[in-house]
């Protein structure tokens, strides 16, 4: 089994936490980034008890100007990185006219700009590796099928997908693979922020993905050339139909689109 080092942002909750456990093999080094020092240290203690080598970094990724120093510290501490999983992000279900400029700015800073900056800072090291390396950007099926009350969030995830597609082409001749993971509703604390009423989460509870299932799928595609992972399958099919028949699908699915 290959010895490697994997960086995960947004590591303390939801998918990030599930990935931390799923990828915690004894010959791997995990670099975990999050905003909560207490949660990071708790997670690291548990993983270290299983024999995993873990480095933790408490940082607010929206402070873009601090990321260069962060990466320099990581490379000094760890040496090199083999895979980056850009998982940190948040959303808010509000109409466009009701969304504060500060909210949209923060969403773009975390969901898009921090991801782009981290990748930019780490790509030179990834290319220098003799082995296969990987960038995995967590997008969303909202970036393929936009719905009401998700204007800013959908815009950030459109940006993640567009950026990833261009980056993949730029790095095609290198050893760096680029994969976008686009997910439908997942049972995490995401909805506690996105929809404080709890209505949407209750409405889609039966079709929600679990972080553990998604983490397993991501583990399986590591260091492959898979372009995208879209889950669940039926929503992935819907996104492809939407690309061909947008007006028709929006008419058929308007009830589901308005569940927020």
TrEMBL record:
**Annotated PROSITE patterns:** ADH_SHORT
Record's keyword terms, sorted: Oxidoreductase
InterPro entries per the UniProt record, alphabetical:
NAD(P)-bd_dom_sf, Sc_DH/Rdtase_CS, SDR_fam
* GO CC, alphabetical: membrane
GO MF term list:
oxidoreductase activity
A Pfam family (short name) is adh_short
Regions that span the bilayer: none
SUPFAM superfamilies named in the record: NAD(P)-binding Rossmann-fold domains
Q: Which PANTHER family match?
A: DEHYDROGENASE/REDUCTASE SDR FAMILY MEMBER 7B, DEHYDROGENASE_REDUCTASE SDR FAMILY MEMBER 7B
Stated family:
Belongs to the short-chain dehydrogenases/reductases (SDR) family.
Q: What is this protein called?
A: Oxidoreductase
Question: What is the originating organism of this protein?
Answer: Halolactibacillus halophilus
Taxon lineage: Bacteria, Bacillati, Bacillota, Bacilli, Bacillales
């Amino acid at each position: 089994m290959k010895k490697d080092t994997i960086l995960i942002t947004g590591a303390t909750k939801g998918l990030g936490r599930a990935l931390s456990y799923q990828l915690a093999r004894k010959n791997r080094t995990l670099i975990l980034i999050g905003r909560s020092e207490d949660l990071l240290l708790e997670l690291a203690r548990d993983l270290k008890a299983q024999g995993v080598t873990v480095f933790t970094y408490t940082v607010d990724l929206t402070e873009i100007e601090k990321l260069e120093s962060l990466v320099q510290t990581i490379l000094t501490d760890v040496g090199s990185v083999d895979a980056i999983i850009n998982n940190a992000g948040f959303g808010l279900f509000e109409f466009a006219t009701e969304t504060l400029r500060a909210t949209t700015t923060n969403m773009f800073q975390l969901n898009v700009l921090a991801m782009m900056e981290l990748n930019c800072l780490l790509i030179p090291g990834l290319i220098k590796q003799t082995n296969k390396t990987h960038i995995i950007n967590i997008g969303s099926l909202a970036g393929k099928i936009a719905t009401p009350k998700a204007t800013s969030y959908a815009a950030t995830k459109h940006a993640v997908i567009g950026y990833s597609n261009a980056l993949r082409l730029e790095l095609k001749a290198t050893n760096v693979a680029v994969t976008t993971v686009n997910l439908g509703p997942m049972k995490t604390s995401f909805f506690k922020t996105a929809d404080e009423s709890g209505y949407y989460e209750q409405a889609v509870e039966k079709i929600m993905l679990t972080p553990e299932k998604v983490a397993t799928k991501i583990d399986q595609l590591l260091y492959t050339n898979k372009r995208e992972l879209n889950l669940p399958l039926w929503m992935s099919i819907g996104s492809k139909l939407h690309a061909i028949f947008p007006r028709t699908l929006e008419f058929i699915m308007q009830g589901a689109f308005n569940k927020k």
